[in-house]
Amino acid sequence: MSKAFREKDLLALAKRFRKQAKVSRAQAARDFKVSQTSIFNAEESPEQALFKLRIRMIEKYSPYKVTGAFYYLSRK
Predict the structure, then answer these.
(1) Model confidence, pTM
(2) What are phi and psi of 13, to 5 degrees?
(3) Cα distance between residue 43 and residue 29, in whole Å
(4) What are the tens digits of pLDDT across the range 25-54?
(5) Counting beta carbons within 10 angstroms of the beta carbon of residue 47, is it exposed (0 to 12), middle (13 to 18) or buried (19 or more)?
(6) % of the chain surpassing 70 pLDDT
(7) How remote is the C-alpha of 22 from its chain's centroid?
(8) How many CA atoms lie within 13 A of 44 on its CB side?
């Protein structure tokens, strides 16, 4: 799956891979030493700035590595 994703797409991927790995939110919270609320927000709230947690979840629960966060600036 060598494809570019937007930051908001990562929350759906994080949730999908966690569920495919048959890991509960409670167990994921223990795995990453965060609260269950943080796991919930990483999966359900795109407005939350939990980019690094989403990447860690994807990399732990899937065979993929997330590379980059590419933001481009252009003149107005």
Answers:
(1) 0.83
(2) -65, -40
(3) 12
(4) 999 999 999 999 999 999 999 888 898 999
(5) exposed
(6) 86
(7) 16
(8) 7
